[in-house]
Write a structure and sequence with these properties.
By secondary structure, this protein is an all-alpha fold. The chain has eight helices and two strands, in the order H-H-H-H-H-E-E-H-H-H. The protein has one domain.
Length: 228
């Protein structure tokens, strides 16, 4: 696919997912003090817990990491491949993520902090939905890789090497969307607490249903023959 023919469905979808991830993480941090959308900090926290002999915190963080991985496993089962390609079962994945966030919202609202594990599983599922697109490594639930790629492309531009503008634009959009989602999530959680997670759950349910209709209209009931 040439740079001038990038699918707007993919680009808009990536931005939406990054916005949702930033929102989820902000809500999780506020209601449970545990981030849900990435595991780097969680693994460092596990190391610190082991070093300090803090079994109590370890038993909170370890299930979080395991839940994220379990969500990614579910993505592998549903979608099967990491390269973005229209026709794969992204609609089903988004509906499953919506269900996990729905469960997380009501579990946390009932006072069970374990609900954050459902949010982490939702994030793992989302992060596993796609890894590559047009030569870029795409992750929508954290921005470390995105920030690295932005810096790398700027370095290429400074040294007068070719930089595809669409790549830079997409990365900036993903970074900005995650950041904006965090602001929205924090603001919403100050008013609705854990029930603020119902907003991304609804957005994912709508987006997933819309994608299923799009997939059926474009590829038929069997989907893209090369989508598995």
């Amino acid at each position: 696919m040439s740079p001038t023919h990038r699918s707007p469905v993919v680009l808009v979808g990536g931005v939406l997912l990054a916005l949702i991830a930033g929102y989820i993480n902000a809500v999780a941090l506020r209601v449970s003090d545990l981030g849900a959308t990435h595991v780097t900090g969680a693994v460092s926290r596990l190391s610190a817990d082991l070093g300090a002999g803090d079994d109590t915190d370890l038993l909170r963080v370890l299930p979080l990491v395991a839940s994220f991985i379990a969500g990614a496993v579910l993505a592998g089962i549903v979608i099967g491949r990491d390269a973005v390609r229209l026709g794969r079962h992204y609609g089903i994945a988004m509906l499953l993520e919506a269900g996990l966030l729905l469960g997380s919202a009501f579990t946390l609202h009932a006072g069970h902090t374990g609900g954050v594990f459902l949010a982490a599983a939702a994030a793992g599922l989302q992060n596993g939905m796609a890894s590559t697109y047009g030569g870029l490594i795409i992750r929508t639930t954290h921005v470390t890789g995105i920030a690295t790629d932005i810096g790398f492309l700027i370095g290429r531009w400074i040294t007068h090497r070719d930089v595809e503008p669409w790549k830079f634009g997409l990365l900036i959009a993903l970074f900005g969307s995650f950041f904006a989602g965090g602001i929205l999530g924090w603001y919403a959680s100050t008013r609705q607490e854990a029930l603020a997670l119902l907003v991304p759950a609804a957005a994912l349910a709508i987006a997933g249903s819309a994608y299923l209709l799009y997939r059926k209209a474009r590829f038929g009931t069997g989907g893209d023959p090369a989508a598995g």
